[in-house]
Amino acid sequence: MLRFLLLALLLVHGAIHLMGLAKAWDWGPVAAIAKPVSRAQGLLWGAAAILFLVALALVIRHRDTWWVPAAAGAAVSQALIILHWSDARFGTYANAAILLAAVLGAAVWSLRNGYADGTSAAVQRALAEPQRMVAESDMTGLPPPVQRLLRAHGAVGRPRPRVLRMELSGELRGADGPWMPFTSVQVNTFGEPTRHFWIDAVMKGLPTKGHHAYAGGHARMHIKLLGLVTVMDHSGDRMDASETVTWLNDLCLFAPGALVDPRMSWTPIADDRARVTFTHGARSVSAELVIDEEGRLVDFISDDRYCLMPDGRMEPLRFTTPCSKHRHVNGRLVPGYGEAIWHLAEGPFSYGRFTLRSCSVE
């Protein structure tokens, strides 16, 4: 809703500024502007209109830098309004609204730059690593259900994943809050484990932005209302452990070819499940993989993840991600829908519903 209001404001305000250009160059009568407008001033009126319309185009194209021409246009516009105060003073309200939006836009741009810089550096490192194939010989020693998973996914005979890119949509909620719609983009790498997750959500009707970063074995979850007001900023050892589990979860669900890795150790459990333990430096996390007869990963169960409690503490709880609606994306079988569930003392609590929009592996 706020985005559409901004689009309308930029369009109307930009069009109004064309009147100053028309007045200066005698393109027709402009009753709204009584004072004469010099041709030099007319060019400034036209420049402000162009800046607003450029900002409009960038907003339509979802470009984070829209705030730059918007702020510049508002500054030029306000200078002209001061010169023609009696005719144009009400434009001050529009400029104030645009400048406020630009401040928020700049804050989002700054936060998102952290995501962009993190993903760019991680991807460059990952793609510089030698590419290895998932060979038939790599199946030796893996529990039978895991072999079934890799074959069904289409991993055998293909390069081992180095980079995973995904787009998701869905809903999230806290322990005592309503469901919040969101969209997200993320990039994971597997040689050096990294995960950068950018989220656009709506909290209490207001846009909310966030960056979950995991690199070098350390994690930070930073969420800002309107991209400006911090509502969540968590890091520390328990967050590091939790994000390692989340990274492993993504790998198993969407890039299981990366399970062919000496840092993974296996414990067979049954015909439909096996336990994987990932060790990176001094940290190890484990999960039980539930795999059906057709090789689809239908659940991921871990006791090594920490839940952020309402009082700010992080407590260990069983974490599961049951999945369904598997389909082939770029020739790889992946789940199309999943949930994230905490297993509380009073029973399971689903806090996330995720629908896969796109998925690619390099």
Topology:
Layout: H1 2-24, H2 39-60, H3 67-83, H4 85-88, H5 91-127, H6 144-153, E1 163-172, E2 180-189, E3 194-203, E4 206-215, E5 218-225, E6 229-235, H7 237-254, E7 264-270, E8 273-280, E9 283-291, E10 297-308, E11 314-320, E12 323-324, E13 327-329, E14 332-334, E15 337-344, E16 347-361
Antiparallel strand pairs: 1-2, 1-16, 2-3, 3-4, 4-5, 5-6, 7-8, 8-9, 9-10, 10-11, 11-15, 12-15, 13-14, 15-16
Helix pairs in contact: 1-2, 1-5, 2-3, 3-5
Tell me what you see in this structure.
It is a single chain. This protein has 362 residues and is of the alpha+beta class. The strands form two sheets. Strands 1, 2, 3, 4, 5, 6, 7, 8, 9, 10, 11, 12, 15 and 16 form a 14-stranded antiparallel β-sheet that branches. The mean pLDDT is 90. The chain is built from seven helices and 16 strands. The two termini are 37 Å apart. It folds into two domains: 2-105, no CATH class; 134-361, outer membrane lipoprotein receptor (LolB), chain A.
The radius of gyration over CA amounts to 26 Å
Instruction: State the end-to-end CA separation.
Output: 37 Å
Overall strand count: 16
Count of distinct structural domains: 2
Q: Any idea what the shape is?
A: elongated
Low-confidence stretches: none
Level-1 CATH class name of the largest domain:
Mainly Beta
Q: What series of H and E elements makes up the topology?
A: HHHHHHEEEEEEHEEEEEEEEEE
Major sheet attributes: 14 strands, antiparallel
Give the fraction of residues assigned to helices: 25-40%
Question: Any guess at the CATH architecture of the largest domain?
Answer: Clam
Which percent range describes the beta-strand content? 35-45%
Structural class: alpha+beta
Mean pLDDT comes to 90
In the CATH scheme, what's the topology name of the largest domain?
A: outer membrane lipoprotein receptor (LolB), chain A
The helix count comes to 7
